[in-house]
Design goal:
Length: 175
């Protein structure tokens, strides 16, 4: 990470800590802000957050690794989380998974080279009677079939704004 990027991240964290308060309870909102703007919570970001909040970096690391919505690695603009829990599994999540992997040319846990899509597994998202279910960022899709995968990806590509939680902030973060 370049020095200017580090400085920008440090300044951002400082602002967010001011907004949420320099206390332990601010940790998750601050991490969410980092994730939204930078599409990841890097080691440097964890260290900075820990310094600003006066907590041990190991504690920050364990929060980041515990919550699926925070990621140490860079994530795409659209994070697709396919439920792999039993009802969705029985409803055909494997076919949906294969289709997603084929269409995007990546496997689960990876991000496309253009930085648009990340594939991840999720545990039950509460749509068990309408499986297979998946999330695109915070938008739920149910009864997903292989055919529907194509439509969902098209929708993402076309409606680049509405479903994208990161807007174009993550492009800024990558510059
Ligand atoms: S098992 Fe997939 S949503 Fe509950």
């Amino acid at each position: 990470m370049l020095v200017t990027e580090q400085q920008r991240l440090k300044d951002d964290i400082g602002r967010w800590v001011q907004r949420y308060g320099a206390q332990r309870s601010a940790l998750i909102p601050v991490l969410q802000e980092i994730q939204a703007k930078y599409s990841q919570v890097s080691e440097y970001a964890m260290q900075e957050a820990a310094d600003h909040l006066g907590i041990h970096p190991v504690e920050v690391y364990s929060v980041v690794t515990f919550y699926a919505f925070l990621a140490e690695a860079y994530q795409g603009k659209f994070v697709i989380r396919l439920c792999r829990t039993i009802s969705c599994d029985m409803a055909g999540k494997t076919r949906v998974a294969r289709q997603l992997e084929n269409d995007l040319g990546i496997t689960f846990g990876q991000t496309t080279k253009d930085g648009k899509f990340t594939l991840e597994w999720a545990n039950c998202i509460g749509m068990c009677d309408q499986g297979p279910a998946l999330l695109v960022n915070d938008h739920v899709f149910t009864s997903v079939t292989s055919e529907k995968v194509h439509d969902i990806l098209e929708l993402c590509r076309k409606s680049f704004g509405p479903l994208a939680v990161h807007d174009n902030r993550h492009e800024e973060a990558r510059q």
